[in-house]
Amino acid sequence: MEVSTAATLPRLNVGLLRRHPEWAANAILQPLPEKVLQFGAGVFLRGFVDWMVDGMNRQGLFNGSVVVVPSMTPGKVTALNRQDGAYTHLARGLQDGQVVEEKRIVTAIRRGIDPYTQFHEYLQCAHNPELRFIVSNTTEAGIAYHSDDKQSDQPPVSFPAKLTLLMMERYKAFAGDPSSGFVLLPCELIERNGDNLKKTVLQTAANWNLESKIVDWIEKANVFTNTLVDRIVTGFPRDEAQALWQASGYIDDLFNTSEAFHLWVIEGPAALARELPLVEAGFNVIFADDMTPYRDRKVRILNGAHTTTVLAAYLAGEDLVGDCMKDPLIGGFMERAIYDEVIPTLALPKDELDTYAAAVFERFSNPFIRHALLSISLNSVSKYKARVLPSVEQYISVNGLVPARLAFGLAALIVFYRGTVIQNGALIGQRDGKEYRIQDDVPVLETFAGLWSGFDGSTAGPHRLTDAVLQRRDWWGKDLRQLPGLSAAVGGHVESILNRGMRASLQQVG
User: Fold this and answer.
1) What is the homologous superfamily of the domain 293-509 according to CATH?
2) Is the pLDDT of residue 136 over 70?
3) CA–CA separation, 222 vs 97, rounded Å?
């Protein structure tokens, strides 16, 4: 990064925007009431929730700002406060085959509070009657109960314990008024994230022996929603920063980038849509009584397309998702797998599913995102179980036939995990004479290393190997050999890949 070039530029902050209203472009620069407390200072929430709050404010629909609290690591709000919470967000991608861009200076964040050095200020947030919403993105491991957290810690280690302390303070500040409760909107990528957050908060309350009236207020006065978030936020554009700064006219250490697509599904009371007018502001947000169909749609179409295709694509010579979409053989395989074998197993209307799938494939083709296949390949066994296996089972149940492409994806997994040596926690595979690293739980890697070490190359070898993989109840939750026709289909694909190569086998399955 050529810092010397940027040294002559001013740094983005609210004062700079007031001097250059042409850059602000309708941004709200005056302080707004603090209505949202956000656990997590990372790029995702800035490119998702904060971006939406800013959009509502610009339309006069929300009139509220965000306070950011680091969830796990001290010092994460220093840069945010240095820029008065302002940053540039650049969303870009494809829409109907055309490149679209939206560049906006976001001013939704009022300030950052570091609970590790400003614990009193953190608790004081609970005294603000305007504060209503709590959002979080503390990674998948963030919503977890820690028995070692103490009520006297300033602050406790875990996010649920920090939240429990805040709720205790809220209860005291408003004397248990039921109307003083929060709406919690966790964005962690775990199933039923709101239910899990509530469970861990109540576990913490029980561990601290809190009074029953406080526990009752936590349970009844607060709304723990389950949510589904869907947007790729690529963060700071390191390779482009200099050019983007020069074009903007200022230095922005918080410059954030994402794809254009976004979706937020919120499972909660219908009244939330009025309190949080995201739909009215034009955002792709769905308030639903049950988010399950939308979760299944995302997991089985978007994530399922990845898991079904990327291992085969890598062994066929590709390295990036975008390049797969340019390859007629691989792109065609992925589309037929989704449209012919996954969508027929889902509950939502077909036209809605087709529209979502078309958007997914356009997102995969986004020229601004370089998504490496090997990074997606991490933990493919558990991913296949969660993302693809439900479609396989439903397809067999309804049609009495094995879905050929989804079965091929499992065969590709077995061949991708071909290796006999584990080094530095990874099984070592070979593609065209060059090594690649296969990363998964160590017992999974050890099992595959043993199976491939014993592979004899006989005619029956691929089918014996397939049976050994499919019978692993600890991996799949059941013996997959019991699914009619699946073992024979997968074994046949494994045999074809080993004998004919990946590209020829893909052509054969169509």
Assistant:
1) N-(1-d-carboxylethyl)-l-norvaline Dehydrogenase; domain 2 (1.10.1040.10)
2) yes
3) 43
